[in-house]
Design a protein that fits this description.
Number of strands: 21
Number of domains: 3
Shape: globular
CATH architecture of the largest domain: 2-Layer Sandwich
CATH topology of the largest domain: Uridine Diphospho-n-acetylenolpyruvylglucosamine Reductase, domain 3
Helix content: 25-40%
Strand order of the largest sheet: 6-7-13-11-12
Largest sheet: 5 strands, antiparallel
Strand content: 25-35%
Bound molecules: flavin-adenine dinucleotide
Order of helices and strands: HEEHEEEEEHEHEEEEHEEHEEHEHEEEHE
């Protein structure tokens, strides 16, 4: 019996754990790309999730985690191991603040905070995906990011369940300590929000969602912005001098500016295409492959490097 089969047999004995063998990951990614994994293992029970981690941690079995699959590239060959998905979705509030499970939809959290007159999340309306991954990648938009609101994050590090305060999470632009420690599993988080007016917060979120829906239609098979924006302070003076002042926002230069300069708009490999109206948006026009997507991203990176000597970095995550 292979190690994975032995592990699967043990996982199948854990109550409240769903084990779906041969799950097609293309059904779990917004790009609609990706072959099968050995099994998709999911649960809304923290006890069951920790029990599954207990089986896998320290074993030779290959495993990884996904959330809502909105920021993922999975290879056409699929994933040669087990894929975990923690689906717990509870959101509560008391005097200590808001508590949220990692599997809650980020948009449900925004709506919850807005409805309770709690300010600080409203500009994140419309960012797809789940809270765990939002913390992992420090998701944000329109001047807000989840890092600013985090009080604590509870996670499993393989040996034990621990809790970090915000500073220990080492958040930076689209970065956190969780991104650098791939096996760590975010379970829940506490957020500290400010007093606001529900109607005002809801109106702001509605307006942002309308703007975002025009840019990223809800049915578009994509990952949002595909490359990270660039921090002005990290650019060489020679490159920074070429960037018009009106392009710089909050110390960042959109990767789209560099991409547009190298003629990215409309570029395609197979069915994977750069949007005509947004040089940092790559989407699957239908029937695309991960191989085409990777080839297109390589071409975009090559062009920016050849012209600016700059290595742009994917915001999207490769399932590994
Ligand atoms: C149309 C569109 C617009 C977008 N706009 C924005 C935007 O404005 N701002 C922004 O920041 N992002 C944006 N994104 C990217 C995406 O929404 C975020 O990165 C989101 O946080 C991903 O959530 P997910 O649950 O889909 O994660 P997934 O894509 O499933 O996973 C992403 C990563 O998180 C890890 N992960 C998932 N759950 C856990 C967990 N519990 N513990 C540890 N690691 C975990 C996975 O291993 C993976 O590496 C956009 C995406 C789309 C499709």
């Amino acid at each position: 019996m292979t190690l994975a089969l032995a592990a699967l047999e043990r996982l199948q004995t854990i109550p409240d754990l769903t084990v779906q063998t041969g799950a097609l990951l293309g059904n779990h990614t917004r790009f609609r790309l990706g072959g099968a994994c050995q099994a998709l293992v999911s649960t809304t029970s923290e006890a069951a999730y920790l029990a599954a981690l207990g089986v896998l941690t320290g074993s030779e079995v290959t495993w990884t985690t996904i959330g809502g699959g909105t920021n993922l590239i999975v290879s056409d060959a699929g994933y040669p191991g087990l894929v975990l998905q923690y689906n717990a979705k509870t959101i509560t509030v008391d005097d200590a603040g808001v508590r949220v499970d990692a599997g809650a939809d980020l948009n449900d959290l925004v709506d919850f905070a807005n409805a309770h007159g709690l300010a600080g999340m409203e500009a994140m309306a419309g960012i797809p995906g789940w809270v765990g991954a939002a913390i992992y990648g420090n998701a944000g938009a329109y001047g807000q990011s989840i890092a600013e609101r985090i009080e604590w994050v509870r996670f499993a590090d393989g040996a034990e369940v621990r809790q970090f305060g915000r500073a220990e999470c080492e958040f930076r632009y689209r970065e956190s300590i969780f991104k650098r420690n791939k096996g760590w599993q975010i379970l829940s988080a506490g957020l500290r929000l400010e007093v606001g007016e529900a109607g005002v917060l809801q109106a702001k979120s509605a307006s942002i969602r309308a703007t975002r829906d025009a840019k990223f239609p809800p049915t578009m098979q994509c990952a949002g912005s595909i490359f990270k924006n660039l921090l002005l302070r990290e650019l060489s003076p020679a490159v920074a001098a070429q960037v018009p002042a009106n392009v710089i926002r909050e110390g960042k230069i959109p990767a789209g500016w560099f991409l547009e300069e190298v003629g990215a708009k409309g570029l395609a490999v197979g069915a994977m295409r750069v949007a005509d109206y947004h040089a940092n948006l790559v989407y699957n026009t239908g029937g695309g492959t991960a191989a085409d997507l990777v080839a297109l991203l390589s071409e975009l990176k090559r062009r920016v490097f050849d012209r600016f000597g700059l290595e742009i970095e994917e915001e999207v995550q490769f399932l590994s």
